[in-house]
Amino acid sequence: MTEQQKVHPVSDDFAAKAWIDKEKYQALYQQSLDDPEGFWAEQAKRLDWIQAPTKIKHTSFDSHNVDIRWFEDGTLNASANCLDRHLATRGDQTAIIWEGDDPNESKHVSYRELHAQTCQLANALKELGIGKGDVVTLYMPMIPEAAVAMLACARIGAVHSVVFGGFSPDAVAQRVIGADSKLVITADESVRGGKQVPLKDNVDAALTRPGTEVCEKVLVVKRTGGEIEWKDGRDVWYHELVDKQSSDCQPEEMNAEDPLFILYTSGSTGAPKGLKHTTGGYLTYASLTHQYVFDYQDGEVYWCTADVGWVTGHSYIVYGPLANGATTLMFEGVPSYPSHGRMGEIVDKHNVAILYTAPTAIRALMAHGDNVMDSSKRDSLRVLGSVGEPINPEAWEWFYRVIGNSKCPIVDTWWQTETGGILISPLPGAMDLKPGSATLPFFGVMPALVDNEGNLLEGAAEGNLVILDSWPGQARSIWGNHERFIQTYFSTYQGMYFTGDGCRRDEDGYYWITGRVDDVLNVSGHRMGTAEIESSLVAHESVAEAAVVGFPHDIKGQGIYIYVTLADGYEPSDELKKELTQWVRKDIGPIASPDVIQWAPGLPKTRSGKIMRRILRKIAANECDGLGDTSTLADPSVVDELIENRASR
Ligand code: WTA
């Protein structure tokens, strides 16, 4: 039997105690399709509304008029749902367990404390002149203040835009400008794997870029006390302003469709786009999926290892768990520091029941052998989760056997920044698991496969993954550019949301995501547009032309392979390779570090001048025998040259 055919059936014992078993899944899924209005009206009751919604679903995927609204006459406040409503019943329960980069540093923040801190920051934001509708950029370490900042924005109706702390000053600048952001909240430095990252220096550099003048203030958390520059009049210490504020702040009444946050992500073309997520539908969906997909039971410690800079951190470290009154663990560091046993040690230390992580982290540990987990027992674990990229069956089985001691179901959750929450995933008490498959759709989600012409494929098939109707967690638009939203997601296949992913459906109706079918790379679970990296490269004086493709990488899933044509007067050299590598890292961030650079005297192009990436991908993957038809190339000899001088890795 190959790995792919293995099935791990749901255990009766697990199903008996789970929120959702097979029968319940079938019944609720059917109901969610037959009567979406009734289903979601019922689910929305899990939130505290100020005005309960009476209008439930108003959505259109018609490319002439994409219009997505959920619960549109309801009003609520997201921070009140994550904090205030828990105070009476669980004020002293831990909301956030913070585990520092240094294993000797950790702390517990109760719901009451988190509420007070959020109110204090909310009042501080008001003092800084921030109000409803203003955009606040967060560029922060993984510390409780990051969650406090998100919730404080939500409390006063400001819109947060979190920028991953590993991105460059240019990326920060681009996002400050794109969202007209008046305030940046950051820290002096972040700490990861024993090393400091100069967040405040990066913000200083970002705010020298033209266009960033909109940003008037920088609020700085003192995390390390490291040396930083200070700009009087602009920079404000977090503790100096926040500590003196009242811990009372009335939450702003927000419409369900008022924006909660913007989050930038990469696409196949152009600069990263800021997806707009709104309040009522997003929170309903994040909270519901968190409870059911992880089978979260009251009192359990839940740990998602993502960074708050990504959507996974938004929905499944902050909003979903806190809306559910869960205890959510936030880890500042990296799984390999101080040793590769760290993840298991954290599980033991804090009694973690649910561990949600990424295939790339699992593969990195797996590379060190089974003994890498010997420093921990991990008996407290009950459910495991995977997200960000396809998980190969070998990594799945290792995760199951070594980390989960062969007793925890794995939920392989497929979703996207655009979807706001998990769309295809096992519910651990309801689905028999097949390693490598995200299994079946969540309630209210209608996945389908289409061929390149947009024809729906029935039964067992492979094609492009689309979603046929709206769900409440879906992004509503691209910030400031609804036309681009329509173009990107609703114009490829009429009347359908196009995910950009390829997918296979097997004879049991299980979905197997095969990866992106567009020019988006997924490197260690991080999304990057090839176009972004190319435009960074061609901005270097030595580069005449560049083409970027992904190639299979044992640990990262995909690596970055770059073909560079040099400008006249430049010669290939190892120094130049290093320089270009540094250039991209500085421009975009270390996550965009090239794995391979190949000098290319010419690139394979069609007669109309279009680069044939299909060929470049094959050469990068060392599949030079299956290049297919090259007869349409302007100069087929270019290909032979590239194969001959294929860069070794
Ligand atoms: C990929 C992350 C296979 C996919 C939540 C998607 C996955 C992109 C899975 C979104 C999974 C995410 N199996 N592929 N379980 N989860 N992906 O926006 O290609 O950072 O389109 O959201 O990651 O990445 P994003």
Automatic annotation (TrEMBL):
It is an enzyme of class 6 (ligase). The keyword DNA repair does not apply. Residues 532-610 form the AMP-binding enzyme C-terminal domain. CoA binds at R192, G193, G194, K195, T312, S524, R585. Acetylated. Deacetylation by the SIR2-homolog deacetylase activates the enzyme. ATP binds at G388, E389, P390, D412, T413, W414, W415, Q416, T417, D501, R516, R527. The keyword Transit peptide does not apply. The modification N6-acetyllysine is found at K610. This is Acetyl-coenzyme A synthetase. It comes from Billgrantia campisalis. The gene is acs.
